[in-house]
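Pair request: fold both.
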Amino acid sequence: MTDDQIAAAVRLLINQYDPEGLLEMGAPEDEYDPEVGDLAALVCGEEEITADAVGSIWNRWFDDVSDWCVRQPEQVSEVAAGLERLRGQLRRSDPAS
């Protein structure tokens, strides 16, 4: 899986939730790409992907003004689980692993 494919999969996951409601308001599909880049780095990294890790990235990008992590903690957990599943797919497809 290429970096672009990983980013596209993460974008799809985040856009399904539209945590800030920006897509619903008409924002473009790539609205969350800065956050997607950091979340994709989690997928490629070695650290466990937790709801706290996802929330930390999210809050950093939104300068702690987002209430998504407080308002929808189950969604944050679902995103973390989705990123872990993506990591598993990535590792299974990597011939070096």
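--- second member of the pair ---
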Amino acid sequence: MAHPKETRDVVRRAYVFDRLTLEVAAMKAGVAYATARRWKTDAFEAGDDWDRAQSAHLIAGGTLEEIARGVLAGLVTQYQATMEELAASENVKPQEKTKLLASLADSFQKTVSASKKILPETNELAVAMDVIQRLASWVKENKPEHIAAFAQILEPFGNELSRAYG
């Protein structure tokens, strides 16, 4: 079924200006996600990059707090995707996973620490991440035989932290 251009514009506005996910923007406009994804791809090929427009809108119109939240939200998304990929990977040895997890936690902690001055509510998350990083180091040094089990439970626990601290 062909949709009018106005419907495509509703999806684009919801995605770019309201910062909704493409799935939610499609639902809001009453179109299938696959349709919205195709529109976004077609627009990109025609020179209209919705992701770039979304970022530009955030930077141009957002407050410092909104920009910091956007950066932190992007980092959390990448962090979670990396955690899931590491947990699913069978080609990475447990000791290497632990090193990667510690490095990822360190990067995350540094970003969260930098945002604490702008977003005080991230302080709780920073403390939680510090505890996880310290636990990972402790397990690596004192109980290396448990590294594989630790890596296996860390990813779902990371989801719990995200729910608890945002």
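Observation on the second member. DSSP finds eight helices and no strands in the chain.
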